[in-house]
Amino acid sequence: MRLQAALLAAACVSPVAAIFSDEVNHIDFHHALLGAPSPDSTFFLKPSSASNASLLYTLSDKSILGAVNPRDGALVWRHNISRSASPAGGAGLLRGLDGNNAVVGAAGDYISSWGAQDGKLIWDQQFDGNTVADIELLELEDATATSDTRDTLALISGKSFGSVRRFDGDSGAVKWEYIDESGDIPFQVSSSPSEVFYISLQSGILKSSKIKVTALDPITGRQTGQQVLNTEGDITGPESVLFVGANTASPLIIWTDKAHKSLKINVIGSKQISSLAIDNTSGEEIRQVTVHAPHKLNSLPHFLVHYKTGSGAWAEVYHVDLKSAAVNKAYQLPYLQGQSVIATSSIDANVYFTRVADSEVVVVSSASHGIIGRWNVDASSPDYAQAAVAEVVAKGKSVAVRAVVLRDSGDWQLIRNGQIEWTRPEALIEAVAAIWVEAEEKEDLAHELEVEGHDSIHGAYIHRVKRHVRDLQHLPDWLKELPQRIVSSVLSDEVTNLDSFGVAKPVVVATRNGRVYSLDTGRQGSVMWSVQASEQAWDVKDITARPGQVIIDLSDGSYVSINASTGETFTQPPLEATNVQSIANFVVSDGSSLVRLGAVGIREDGSPVTPFNDITGFLVTTSANGRVLGWIESDNKTPVWEFVPPSGQRVVKATARPAHDPVASIGKVLGNRSVLYKYLSTNLVLVTAVNEKDHVAGFYLLDGVSGKVLHSATQAGVDPTQPISSVMSENWFAYSFFGDAIGESSAKGYQLVISELYESSIANDRGPLDAAGNYSSLHGSGTDSLPLPHVVSQSFMIAEPISHMIVTQTRQGITTRQLVCTLPSSNSIVGIPRPVLDPRRPVDRDPTSAEAEEGLFRYAPFLDFDGKWYLTHARDVAGIKDVLSRPTLLESTSLVLAYGGDIFGTRATPSQAFDVLGKSFSKLQLVLTVVALTGGVIFLAPVARKKQVNLLWKAT
Amino acid sequence: MSALPPPPPPQWVVALNSPMPRPSKAANSIPDPPGFTSSNTRGGKQVSLHNPTEMHHDTDRHQRQQQDKQQATRPEETDTLKLKKAWEIAMAPSKQLPMQAIMMYMSGNTLQIFSIMMVLMLFKGPIQGLINTNAAFAKYETPTTKARLVGVKAVYVLMQLLLFALGVWKVNGMGLLPTTRSDWLAWESERQPLERAFFAFK
Which first-to-last residue range defines the signal peptide (chain A) (predicted)? Predict the structure, then answer.
């Protein structure tokens, strides 16, 4: 108890703990994610004409535009361009040009140009309701091109028109516009050295289309020619055209017939269609045909066609004769089993094709079939390779290649000369559930201890002696390890050796598309394994950790059990087809550990799927129609109570105290050493109900057993479209919302309200129940029924919305808690110390000495987030949907994991790491000091003894 | 034959005739060999080593004279004298009280090494005094004074208790006495609900 008091004192002294710069990347990790990159919009590019190193640019399926450093896979900059785009936008487009210091991206109706080096916005344009169908950077060497920035050609597709516009590279001003009102489907734009081509699909008879090519003058935008290609029967829509060459010396349109029997090629500008028979020797049906061609004006007019069958792939390289517009097959890359992807890259006029297959990386020149670079690399993966981009560097006769393979799940992998350099786990951006792995218990030791516990004293003693004798067989091994352990513990930092205290637990993350990842939080969150647990997207309802395994419950009543260390999955189909809305976990807290009693699925209407007879207790659920329901174990048909919020309000959220929420002290000691007793109940429910019409939000504190309303607060002028978050812990709850000014005295802005519950308003009083050890919500009559709490509330104005709140959990609850808030508008997570949010802070006066002793200070209505509170410090943690916290074996430390967009994990120490030796503590120094002192004593002892003897005998 | 100079006296003669050198300071601390008792350490007079018989005679006479004097005084007088002395001892702690009170008041109620040491000393005195009550008055206890010494002893104990009370007051001031509700908070337990609710929110 005294220790606890000392810890409490330590906890109160310094409630603010910041992250030290040397702890960054050590106690925390961050996956800054982009999302699955779209293959057409991913490329290597030198960010400015002056730089030698290139960056990797991409636009992901989440419309996040970003630059990645190819050396280590670190994110250089990123922007979410979907924020300003209409939600109905299709796949985004991103274009860049070597020697151009900007990249241009488009998503939906929004087009924007960004500085390639620093990611600063150059210009942007929005076309309300119309979508950007295609963009291209003009590589024209005209007299007006004075600056480094090239002009952009954009094809905008409206409801009944297509429009080609040329935007100025520096300002985004429209230089000219060509409007096509013929009703054709605008398809793409392309340019040759002298002309701009606008390609549209003219609908013909029987759902088939013709390709219409309109040539435009690049300076004025006037139409100079038009051709309609006779493609009827082959082309049914934009998806049947394989390739429209952009920015090449000889822009091409390539498509195939429906049976993949012949390849049709048109050199844009001519009417001629060359038809080449596809020579399929594999004996399998061709599943996919892709065309790879360089995207530079001065490149050789060569291109490669890649044919994929179910089990393998081959490729053919073609040359285009510029004068006659004839297309000839040059050579063929052999058929290879397994996955194979091709990337095109060009150095000056030379074009190189890089083929990444399962076991090798091959680089060939487009001119001849000789292999100029080959590396053996094991790039095989169950995750299907979708596409690749590569950068080839010629070193004399040999070449070096960096190839990025984009996989089906969205993960990227960079292979440099046959070495896998890094992998970006982009699929994690869709994480829907995460949990820390529970280590497999040491069953045998627990069993032995149980035997000893049940035996007589004598028998237990003999048993223990026998066990210890048996343990001696491990002694040689232990002795062998001992020197190494001593050396490592002396030389390494104390902070690194905390893994045995449960601070470096692996995390299992499930993503929306059915993938499961295991992240090693001790090693910057690196991926330990990843599996595709479900072929298609799944609806994860709950994730729980059992010793050694992780169970993922799905909405159809089935569950997937995953081995936490190997990633082996086992899918249990549902016993009966039900649609589960959520999962009720019957978990009780037993000391510092949680005991699982069972689980039951909850239907959409809030009723349990089955009666839960083996559990004694009540169940509280929410129903889809905005009510809170209470259930008794034997009845899953009719609820025992129902909470319906007042007229017009709908329950939007209900929270309860976390399952692990230990209370170190049941009262709050005041300055005069009297005690305010906390109102503690594990059955409390905090319900948030919103009336969207009247902009009223009600917060109701219910007793989960009887459904009785213990406290309620109503806030008027609440904006229901802004996030309303709430959290409950110990004897307090907090909620945040955007409140409008409705009266003279009310404030407009984001508010954070905190309420503390006490048994009585009088100190040293335990309320009507007084010293009773138990209470009942149901059977009490008059005096000993559940009393109402005394509630103290205070509200603070904050600068930003809070989308999600949790409370840090520690093992014994002695450490002060932090309110961990997700701030979506500044992409950060802040941990507000609880003492700052004390509702008993004196208002409009300075604290008395007794209050100051309690740690209370004067109330200020505006709560400014201190820079030291930010758990994410300088990091930009975007898109967080959920934050988790769990205790470690160290009382001072709580693990925090944020997911939903980026993945961020850290260790929160709300009262500083009071039980951990800091980095400044050196064991080596301590050992050396002891050794030096011992040496000194051994050396000086005879000298001192001799001197003393001499002093006695020598008479002066 | 010329007369030879007389031979130098042997070493022991020189030593016998010359006085002993002054012993150094360090020599004083040399312990005597077992069984030897130095005449110097016994106190009393400085006696010459040359005639030990005279010394014996001298001390004997001295002691005899003293005994004669004691027998001369009356026992009643001695008893009053002893009681007076005993009263002095009994009242001695009360003289410390004001000084200690001022010291305790000045030292403040913070937990520091000096105030803690002072409080410890303050407790040590009365406790030792109480334990040694009988020993303190043993010198004055005779069969005749025994009955009258009880009151003196009671006053002595009271005085020591007063000092002790001062210490308790000080410790209370420092907040070390478990007198408030908060000191017993750790022994109070959380009220347990008879019913248990589980939640399924998401």
Answer: 1-18
Checking phi first, is residue A803 left (phi over 0); if not, alpha (psi -120 to 50) or beta? alpha
| Cβ pair A664, A680 in contact under 8 A | no
Domain count, chain A: 2
pTM for the full model?
0.82
| Rounded Cα–Cα distance for residues A87 and A949 (Å) | 96
Choosing from A368, A394, A424, the residue where a domain stops is A424
CB pair distance less than 8 Å for B194 and A776: yes
Q: What is the count of residue pairs from A and B with beta carbons less than 8 Å apart?
A: 130
Whether residue A470 sits in one domain with residue A397: no
Q: How many CB atoms lie within 10 A of CB B145?
A: 18
Please check whether residues A285 and A377 belong to one and the same domain.
yes
* Cα of A705 to nearest chain B Cα, Å: 6
Instruction: Indicate if the pLDDT at residue A84 is higher than 90.
Output: no
Interface pTM (ipTM) of the complex? Answer: 0.80
Tokens of A946: 């001799």
Given A483, A499, A515, the domain boundary residue is A499
Q: Distance between CA atoms of A912 and A7, rounded to whole angstroms? A: 11
In chain B, where are the structural domains located?
75-177
A376 within some domain: yes
Helix (H, G, I), strand (E, B) or coil at B52: helix
Q: CA of A778: which chain B residue's CA is closest?
A: B195
A597 has a pLDDT exceeding 60: yes
Is A309:A301 a contact under the CB 8 Å cutoff? no
Shared domain for A349 and A399, answered yes or no, is yes
CB contact (8 A) between residue B195 and residue A683:
yes
**Amino acid letter, A81:** I
Q: Which residues of B touch A (CB under 8 A)?
A: 23-24, 26-27, 29-30, 175, 180-183, 185-186, 188-202
Q: Which residues of B touch A773 (CB under 8 A)?
A: 189, 191-192
Q: Are residues A300 and A376 in the same domain?
A: yes
Same domain, A287 and A399: yes
Which residues make Cβ contacts (< 8 Å) with residue A307, sequence separation at least 6? A260, A278, A280, A286, A288, A289, A313, A314, A315, A316
Do A305 and A345 share a domain, yes or no?
yes
Domain that holds residue A358: 279-424
Could you tell me if A284 and A362 lie in one domain? yes
Residue A710 has pLDDT above 80, yes or no: yes
CB contact under 8 A, B26 and A954: yes
